[in-house]
Amino acid sequence: MPLRVDLSIIKDEWVPFGEVKPNDPPGSMSNNLPNGGRELIIFSCARDDSHSKVERSPENLDLVKGPGRTIWNTHTELIATLRDGESHEMEIHTDRGVRSQLRITHTKAMEQVRVLHPKEVLLGAFEYLQRDTLFFSDLLTITVASVWVNKEGKPPSDLIDRMQSALKRILEQMVAEGTLTVSNGSSGQKAYTRRRKS
Fold first, then answer.
1. Position 79 confidence tier, pLDDT thresholds 50, 70, 90
2. Model pLDDT for residues 92-143, shown as the tens digit of each residue
């Protein structure tokens, strides 16, 4: 039963981010603090699969290389010990300045994760930001941030181009279905307004 990591940038909408199995090295995620400091959230699954641990490393040096991260830390602080089916949630601010909710779960056997449809994510953005109308650039920023939430540096331009094309197609479908309406904003950008259920 692996440790499972989910992320949410839209209120109450969780997206599977990854997992750590009993024999895997610990996973980690950066958290930028309001005072300008930075810490690492480290999560690991016990070798005997009896529990998972969530720890904070306030004093560390870390090097990201390829898909991995090498961590030198002087000490860690235990945040939570999780057993079968237990979860811990916390807010983090990533290196890209995106505020997210992090949920770490010591999963139950055969537990299934519901993967959100892109339309659900987009509709959730209106709810999370408490706005009925969003510009295309707003929706693109949220979409890119959702897949680049724990990576260093800026997302590559080819990724942004691909996501922009996919987002346009999805928004066109939602307008055709009557879920959204579209208009031209004062800046020339397209503005999308959700239709509330009566």
1. very high
2. 887 666 788 889 999 865 444 444 567 777 887 887 778 889 988 888 887 7
Strands (E) across 33-145 are located at: 38-45, 52-65, 68-82, 87-93, 99-106, 133-135
Measured torsion, CA atoms of residues 143, 111, 105, 146, in degrees rounded to the nearest 10: 0
CA–CA gap between residue 67 and residue 121 (Å, rounded): 26
Q: What are the DSSP E strand ranges found in the chain?
A: 3-10, 13-20, 27-32, 38-45, 52-65, 68-82, 87-93, 99-106, 133-135, 180-184, 190-194
Residue ranges of the domains in the chain?
Answer: 3-106, 118-194
- Nearest alpha-carbon partner for 124 in 26, 9, 36: 9
| Mean pLDDT, residues 17-34 | 84
pLDDT-based confidence at 66, cuts 50/70/90?
very low
CATH topology of domain 118-194: Arc Repressor Mutant, subunit A (1.10.10)
Write out the two tokens for 29: 């995620």
